[in-house]
Amino acid sequence: MSSDTAPSQDPRDHGTGHGHGPGDPCAGPDRTGLWSVDEHLADILATVRPLDPIELPLLDAQGCVLVEDVTVPAALPPFDNSSMDGYAVRVADVAGATGEFPAVLTVVGDVAAGAGGLPEVGPGQAARIMTGAPLPPGAEAVVPVEWTDGGTGEGEGAATGMRAASAAPEGAAGEVRVHRAAEAGAHVRRAGSDVRAGELALAAGTVLGPPQLGLLAAIGRGTVRVRPRPRVVVLSTGSELVQPGEELGPGQIHDSNSFALAAAARDAGALAYRVGAVADDAESLRATIEDQLIRADLLVTTGGVSVGAYDVVKEALTADGQVDFRKLAMQPGKPQGFGAIGPEQIPLLALPGNPVSSYVSFELFVRPAIRALMGLGDLHRPVVRATLKADAPLTSPEGRRQYLRGAYDAESGTVTPVGGAGSHLIAALAQADCLLVVPEDRTGADPGEELDVVLLG
Predict the structure, then answer these.
(1) Looking at the chain, which terminus has fewer C-beta neighbours within 10 angstroms, N or C?
(2) pLDDT in tens, 119-139
(3) Close Cβ partners of 303 (under 8 Å, ≥ 6 residues apart)
(4) Global pTM?
(5) What's the count of helices (H) and strands (E) in the chain, helices before strands?
(6) 54, 14 in Cβ contact below 8 A?
């Protein structure tokens, strides 16, 4: 069996916190008939618990949820510093300075970012200073180099920049002519002007993106305590499946589900491991699943959950009673399976094999489970109301909640169906950015009606 994983196996040892199994009585009122979409989802979310927190290096914590308040240990910035390349001056020395009558100051040295041993700026003096460098003692403001002659002695000419210190060390001495006055604090970033010591930097529950990680680094945090990104193993089943790039034989098709679902798991915030397609053999499937448990916080299978003679997922996982296979009042995606397996009771969601069915099922059930494992409060895709824009009425099976692919126009507030209702129409799925929802109590929808729309983007 081939395995395509990114990244490699993760040896983290953290609890999964999984709760009761599918036999819990709160899962649904009628376990022999059709389950509603909401009952099935409630059963999943009642079982899935947020992962235990761990300490991670900053870059490994990207996309994770912070589990503790982070306070600022020291002011940011920690010292008064320059926001411009220019000269640190005393306000009185440049008062009334103009291009015609510049203030002529003696340059007493350079102040570069990270510099120590700062020169003191006395009356009639200036220090050449770089962006981010600490304001030297005695200085009250910074005049940008463009307000000066850059120390060239060219009278009224305005400098456009500084020459490199290595190429022109003389720039740190001599005289500079300043052509404009500056108020106290001009072009100076005061200590604590961003955040002060003791202030709240980030609250527990914050999702760590690039700006948040930048702030943590700026206040000196090298690691942070978070709920880790769930490790989701995706495997498809079917002897007819061939890996993309390989030649098809009679009756074979390329495996697309595992790629789509692994990508969807990443999009939801998980670390996704894609396993090559498993043949229609119950023992092989059981062995493969057992091998994958070591690196899984959630297992997702696709295919083999219906009532056919070769539906091996159902065959392999029904015997021990850990996974419950059920029929849902929805289209596509009627056959579903859910349970918790192995010693650690890892949640497993068994999805149907048709490409549209598996993807819709992922969005409705797996994505919320992933986000629940992450400890996020917002589990679901956004839902909006939109006006149906179509050439003919839509039809929907009685008693089923139908999900159709659509294109949503936010500006006009309309949604247009994309492709037909067939659960194999993957090309139409690739053109869609939303799902149209026709409720269970409806057998259709007319153009101009308002429908719920699940936004996928």
Answers:
(1) C
(2) 999 999 999 999 999 999 999
(3) 236, 237, 238, 257, 311, 313, 351, 352, 353, 358
(4) 0.80
(5) 9, 29
(6) yes
